[in-house]
Amino acid sequence: MIDGFRCASCGAFVGLDAVAPWRCPNENGDRRHVLLRMERADVGDPLVSADGDEANPFIRFRRLMAWHAFALAHGMSDAETVQLVRDTNDGFHTTPVTRSSSLSDELGFGPTGGVWVKDETGNVGGSQKARHLMSILLHLRVAESLGLVSWTEPTRPSLAISSCGNAAIAAATLAHAAKWPLDVFIPEWASGLTVSSLESLGARINRCPRRAGDPPGDPTVLRFREAVAKGAIPFSVQGPENALCLDGGRTFGWELGESLGGEGIDAVDALFVQVGGGAFAAAVSRGARETGLRAPLFAVQTEGCAPLARAWSSARDDEVMARHWSEHMRAWESEPRSLADGILDDETYDWVADVIELRTTGGRVVVAREHNVIRASLMAPSISGIDVSPTGAAGLAGLMECRSHIDDDARVVVAFSGVRRD
Ligand SMILES: Cc1ncc(COP(=O)(O)O)c(C=O)c1O
Ligand SMILES: [Zn+2]
């Protein structure tokens, strides 16, 4: 079987040797196509191809990733790909996953069950976002070093992202280390620590007031897409903007499967992942599944913004759901509101990949009420000792929401994914 991406909406195929395989060739500006990596029956256990004691997941699992296949298809040697990762960013490492006895006790689990926490707060940029972006950056570095693109290092086109949170920090951290220019599109009113961190990392800040004549939608996204149309690179953590982000996000799931496998665990009862744009949950679940870990995805949204919950109920039995995109995924009508403010995306851009994971793993969407979001935001740092933000602890809020339906001897996983910055 030829390996590559298949558009979930129109079926278009894009091979792994394609330069800049960001979006479906039939996409016409509405971002209602998404290239998903084809499922490969012959891939076997991904962990078999993991690289010894190597800590950097972009080296350890390189043979599973699209950027690596792209490099080899164009004649780069495997040894050169390893050096390329080291030169691009060698700060990645396997983040820890451990059973938190304090959280397990607090939530009433018994000694054979409990809560396993994968602590992502120490990852590059303080969250999982850099994993999504690194696979884009590595593709670019390969293309540049093999002369497959029209630019060279001094004339690099700018990377572009619309975000004022963890994704922007991750983008600026990676771009700074790789000496690549970055444009960040942020709301007109944004201020505070994130903006000053972006400035100190050398990112170009573009404030985006709504302009007369703008179509509906977030002006930061409108300006980002205009920049991309003019040649900037979509350095995005949303699959419909750049398919490669989903590829690199799987590293989190591979690490999870490998760590739990090391403890003799090949199945858990629930994998709680907080959902904003939806790329994280889709990539984590798929990566975990690829290691053979059985882990029903419990995708967590807040009551103040839950577009995935609606899409899941309408699309779960629709075999061609991506063709009915606007029927299933509609922007959240009221002003999104929650203490977990990093997951208030009014659309779940990666809903198609999320629904595939929910179906395949036998999972569900959990809508956490705000009092549980607040309780989780307090309990997570004080009881686990991990300095996680309310957004990063929202998966725990999902666990609290459905705790009464989960057995005391069940094993559940939560992703603590973003460090607290205030
Ligand atoms: C800490 C943290 N966790 C989870 C998410 C959700 O990721 P996604 O937007 O891919 O659903 C975000 C996104 O902003 C985040 O910052
Ligand atoms: Zn398409």
What overall form do the CA principal axes indicate? globular
Summing up helix and strand content along with how strands pair, one would put the structural category as alpha/beta
Indicate the percent of residues in helices. Answer: 25-40%
Secondary-structure element string: EEEHHHEHEHEHEHEHEHEHEHHHEHHE
CATH class of the domain at 97-127 and 249-416: Alpha Beta
Tally of individual helices: 15
Unreliable sequence segments? none
Biggest sheet: strands, sense, closure?
6 strands, mixed
Bound molecules: pyridoxal-5'-phosphate, zinc ion
N/C terminus separation: 49 Å
Structure in words:
The protein is α/β, with parallel strands linked by helices and 422 residues long. 37% of the residues lie in helices and 14% in strands. The chain has a domain at 97-127 and 249-416: Rossmann fold, CATH 3.40.50. It has helices at 57-60, 66-73, 78-88, 101-106, 129-145, 166-178, 193-200, 219-229, 244-262, 279-290, 307-315, 325-328, 351-361, 370-384, 394-402, and strands spanning 4-7, 13-15, 35-37, 97-99, 114-119, 159-162, 182-187, 204-208, 233-234, 270-274, 297-302, 364-368, 411-416. It has a six-stranded mixed β-sheet with strand order 4-5-13-10-11-12, with helices on both faces. Strands 8-7-6-9 form a four-stranded parallel β-sheet, sandwiched between helices. The chain is globular and about 60 Å long. The termini are far apart. The structure holds pyridoxal-5'-phosphate and zinc ion (ZN).
